[in-house]
Design brief:
Two copies of one chain form a homodimer. In chain A, strand 1 and strand 2 form a beta hairpin. In chain A, the strands form two sheets. Chain A has a six-stranded antiparallel sheet with strand order 3-8-4-5-6-7. Chain A contains nine helices and eight strands. In chain A, helix 2 crosses helix 5, helix 3 packs across helix 4 and helix 5 crosses helix 7. Among the domains of chain A are: 72 residues, Arc Repressor Mutant, subunit A (Orthogonal Bundle), CATH 1.10.10.10; 74 residues, SH3 type barrels. The first copy, chain A, is of the alpha+beta class. At the A-B interface, helix 6 and helix 7 of A face helix 6 and helix 7 of B. Chain A binds a DNA duplex through helix 4.
Chain lengths: 228, 228
DNA sequence: ACTCAGATTTAGGGTAGGCTAAATCTGGGA
DNA sequence: TCCCAGATTTAGCCTACCCTAAATCTGAGT
C-alpha cells in the first residue's frame, strides 16, 4: 500500500488518466488506448506512452494491444479523484452560486489542488452528501462507491413513470437544455412514447410534453418509480 | 494589453515567479536573482533561465547582473495572484474552519486553480474584504492595492500604545506562537520596553506581559493608535 | 587601479508529458 | 487461410522547468 506515498507524487496528468480509465471501465472491463485518448483529448501515441509509465508504477495493468485495467492502487487513486470532483461540484452549487452546467470545469481544476483536509471540510459542511448535482454517487473517503446506475431513458418502456437519477453529461449547453426541460435528479416524469431504432422519445415533465432525441436518452438515467 | 491572453497561458511556475518578484520589489526596486531563488527555493541558475524567458515574454525587465523589475503586464499578473491568494485565505478562514496558521499552504495551491469567476464569488460572499487574515491588503480586481504598511514592532518606541496591522509571516509554527501572545490584526497593545541593538521587546497585550525577540518585531507591523 | 569573493549567467543534462510519422499488430471478411 | 483497415506501439522530436558545474561579471577594499 504505497498509495499514501503516491498521493503526494501523482501529477495532474496522472490523476486525469486514472480518473478517465475508471470512468471507462464499468465493472472492470478493460479500457482501450483510443477510448482514453478520446476522453482526454490526447493523441493515442501519447496515451500509449503514459500507459507504459503508469503500469511500471503499478497503477494499472496493461496487456499490449488489448487494453488497460486499474490495479487496486490505481482504483483507489481514481476514486479519490472522483470524490474530490463530485464534492467540489456539490460545494460550489451549495455555497458559491454555481449551477450544474458550470461546475464541471471549475471542479476539473480544483480537484487537483485541494488538500484532503479541505475536501473533508467541504463534505462536512455539506452534510456528507451521497450524490453530486448531476446525481452521480460520491465515493466515501475510504473508497466505497454505490454505483446506483439507473436505466437510460432510452430504455424506459413507453407509459412508465420514472424518476431522474443521474444526468451523465458535462457539456454546459447540453446541461442547460436538459434543465430547461425540467429534468434534474429527483424529478419524476412520464415516458409517453418511444420510437424504435433510436428514434425520438416523448416525455411529460410537470405537465408539459417534450420530444427528445435518443442521444439525450442515453445520458439521462432513471429509476422506476417505486412509490407511484 | 495582451495580459488577458496571457492569463490563460501563464503556468503555475510563472505565476509564482511574478508573485515572488512583486513581493521583493517594494516601490519598484529591482529584485536580484538570488533573492528570487531563495524565496522560491530554487537554484539561482534556474531563476536566471526563467528570468530570461519572462523578459522575452514582456512580463519583466531584466538588466543582466543587476536585477529584474516587473513590467506593467507582469505587475498586473502578480497583483491578480496576490488577490487570489489573499481572498482564498480569507474565505477558508471564514467558511471552512481554517485558522491563520494553516491557510497559507492551501491558498498557495488553490490560487493557481480557481477561476476569476470563483474568486469574485468568494469576494462577494465575504463582503469584499480589504485585508486577509494576516492583515495584508487585498488588491482590487482591477489591480489597485493600498499598501498600508504599518511600522515594524521593532521600531515602535517604548511606551507607545499601538494596534497590530499586519503579520508578515507564513510559517504555521511562528503564526501559532504569535497568536498565543494574543497578537493578531486589529488587537491593541502597549510596547513597555525595547532594548537597543535588536534586543528583546517587552509588550503588554490584554493585561499580560510578554518579552519577544527582534525577529518577531520585524514581522509584526503596527499602526499608531489614533483614537487612544 | 587591481584583485578576488560572491553573484550571476551559461553550458550541459534530466524528467514529465505532449506531438507526428512510421512501424507493427489484430481480427473480421473474402 | 489470407489480407488489409484500423488500432496500437515505437521512434524521434519538442517545450517547460528544474539541476549541477563551469565560466563570467561586478564592486568593495586595498
Amino acid at each position: 500500500m504505497n498509495a499514501a506515498l503516491q498521493h503526494e507524487t501523482l501529477t495532474r496528468s496522472v490523476e486525469d488518466y486514472l480518473k478517465a480509465i475508471y470512468r471507462l471501465s464499468p465493472q472492470g472491463r478493460a479500457a482501450s488506448t483510443s477510448e482514453i485518448a478520446q476522453r482526454l483529448e490526447l493523441s493515442p501515441a501519447s496515451v500509449s506512452g503514459m500507459v507504459k509509465r503508469l503500469s511500471e508504477q503499478g497503477l494499472l495493468e496493461h496487456v499490449p494491444y488489448k487494453g488497460v485495467q486499474l490495479t487496486a492502487d490505481g482504483r483507489r487513486a481514481a476514486l479519490r479523484m472522483l470524490r474530490r470532483h463530485r464534492l467540489i461540484e456539490a460545494y460550489l452549487v451549495a455555497f458559491l452560486g454555481y449551477t450544474w452546467d458550470t461546475v464541471h470545469e471549475e471542479a476539473e481544476r480544483l480537484e487537483h489542488a485541494v488538500s484532503d483536509t479541505m475536501v473533508e471540510r467541504m463534505a462536512a459542511v455539506l452534510g456528507n452528501p451521497a450524490v453530486d448535482p448531476h446525481g452521480d454517487p460520491i465515493p466515501t473517503s475510504d473508497g466505497d462507491i454505490h454505483e446506483t446506475a439507473g436505466i437510460p431513458l432510452s430504455e424506459v418502456p413507453a407509459g412508465a413513470r420514472v424518476e431522474v437519477r443521474q444526468v451523465e453529461e458535462s457539456q454546459p449547453d447540453r446541461l442547460r437544455y436538459i434543465a430547461s426541460l425540467g429534468l434534474r435528479p429527483g424529478v419524476r416524469f412520464t415516458v409517453v412514447d418511444r420510437q424504435p431504432f433510436r428514434g425520438p422519445i416523448t416525455i411529460e415533465v410537470a405537465g408539459r410534453t417534450h420530444v427528445v432525441g435518443s442521444e439525450l436518452g442515453q445520458v439521462v438515467r432513471c429509476a422506476g418509480d417505486e412509490d407511484a
